[in-house]
Structure to design on (251 residues):
């Protein structure tokens, strides 16, 4: 980690966990010279880890090349074949305050100013032409056998490309093992639906398990609770089952 900013391992004076996000564990790294980094390690149960890490790094670099304000990435590994034994992203730590902590104490003028800033950034994002739908990668991160589209009109077109989509619904659980087309798709409306439908059909034939959000899973659990409450179980038996069900971690 220290090497990626031209420092030594003994220059690291603090390594602590910042948060557990929806897809990554996030750590803060503080150096002896006062600089700070952020290390993000994806959960191994969140596919497609390799594609997701490679795409996120390339996407941030691509956006920086278009003057979009995003953190700088110092180092990354899209595979676990490294000294750390895990996929990771080491990036710049941005200073600032979470807007949610101050939104209601701001004046209307301050809120409008921030809203317009965000809208201008979104406008610049939507103005960037892409040749197909999918996810952005460095060209060298994708195997030659993987379909990809170059980025015409881009000064660094040889560096970036559009490859398979990293949408979790296309890779959830057993779907990650399916050999189906996940992009890139020149015609988003038709091909993206076709790839998604092919994934669903193949998945149903193999295991019959559908993707469910945590909210859907929770509603299913509560329905089971209501169903069980009509049976002859004692309150004690229901009490043993209920906490185990409602406290289950989201998949």
């Amino acid at each position: 980690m220290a090497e990626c900013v031209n420092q030594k391992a003994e220059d690291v004076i603090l390594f602590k966990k910042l948060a557990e996000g929806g897809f990554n564990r996030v750590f803060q790294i503080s150096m002896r010279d006062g600089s700070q980094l952020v290390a993000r390690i994806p959960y191994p149960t969140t596919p497609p880890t390799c594609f997701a890490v490679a795409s996120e790094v390339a996407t941030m670099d691509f956006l920086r090349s278009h003057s979009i304000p995003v953190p700088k990435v110092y180092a990354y590994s899209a595979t676990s074949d490294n000294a750390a034994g895990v996929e990771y992203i080491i990036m710049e730590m941005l200073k600032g305050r979470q807007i949610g902590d101050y939104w209601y104490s701001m004046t209307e003028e301050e809120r409008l100013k921030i809203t317009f800033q965000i809208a201008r950034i979104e406008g610049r994002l939507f103005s960037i032409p892409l040749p197909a739908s999918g996810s952005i990668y460095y060209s060298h991160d994708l195997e030659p056998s993987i379909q990809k589209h170059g980025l015409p009109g881009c000064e660094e077109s040889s560096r970036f490309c559009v490859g398979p989509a990293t949408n979790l619904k296309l890779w959830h659980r057993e779907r990650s093992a399916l050999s189906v087309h996940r992009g890139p798709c020149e015609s988003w409306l038709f091909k993206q639906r076709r790839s998604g439908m092919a994934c669903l059909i193949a998945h149903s034939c193999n295991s019959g398990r559908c993707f469910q959000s945590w909210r859907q899973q929770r509603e299913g659990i509560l329905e089971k609770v209501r169903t069980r409450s009509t049976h002859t179980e004692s309150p004690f038996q229901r009490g043993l089952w209920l906490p185990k069900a409602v406290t289950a971690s989201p998949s």
Q: What stands out?
A: The chain has five helices and eight strands. The two ends are 30 Å apart (CA to CA). Residues 108-126 form the longest helix (19 residues).
